[in-house]
Amino acid sequence: QKEVEQDPGPLSVPEGAIVSLNCTYSNSAFQYFMWYRQYSRKGPELLMYTYSSGNKEDGRFTAQVDKSSKYISLFIRDSQPSDSATYLCAMTGAGGTSYGKLTFGQGTILTVHP
Amino acid sequence: DGGITQSPKYLFRKEGQNVTLSCEQNLNHDAMYWYRQDPGQGLRLIYYSQIVNDFQKGDIAEGYSVSREKKESFPLTVTSAQKNPTAFYLCASSIEGRIYGYTFGSGTRLTVV
Known about the structure:
Helix content of chain B: under 10%
Strand content of chain A: over 45%
Shape of chain A: globular
Distance between the termini of chain B: 35 Å
Distance between the termini of chain A: 37 Å
Helix content of chain A: under 10%
Low-confidence stretches of chain B: none
Mean pLDDT of chain B: 91
Number of strands of chain B: 11
Largest sheet of chain B: 7 strands, mixed
Oligomer: heterodimer
Number of strands of chain A: 11
Largest sheet of chain A: 6 strands, mixed
Strand content of chain B: over 45%
Radius of gyration of chain A: 14 Å
Number of helices of chain A: 0
Shape of chain B: globular
Radius of gyration of chain B: 13 Å
């Protein structure tokens, strides 16, 4: 079983829809949670990050972490065609040798059509 | 502009050949990483280095080798021992201890022909 599970999709939604992307994980040592966006044939870029449980909002994006359920989410409001990309969740522990080494989900391919 | 440069963008390898992927950064970052990306598998860590002249194996190091002789450079060699090398390879760097500060390169697509 992978440490981080993410539905690869693909997910196709109409412009303006609310998108929900999710990851589950099994390692209770994970404390830092990130979402990356990756356009085709490009490197990932950091979109959102949170520490421990809670919500964080940045414009149209909201990241949620529920450590009790080992479940994280990314919501995209008013989705745009420019949001079409692969979205990767990533996480790491709080210290020791795991610090700085990210464990990634499989990535979800999102297409927003006009 | 500061960033990470990976070269070449596309690379073709014959069976039994070793190839080296280049990764250079001018961000003055201490830590550098190599990830492999396959469809439906996400990114998997191959090797990482937190300081010059030191590096550690990641989760899938077999068939790969690295060196870190300069802070700016972290080349990856894909050896003939790697059974399935066709993949998208990503290099990243970060300030040591700053996990939110990962910067990725644009990747190298390696294909075995």
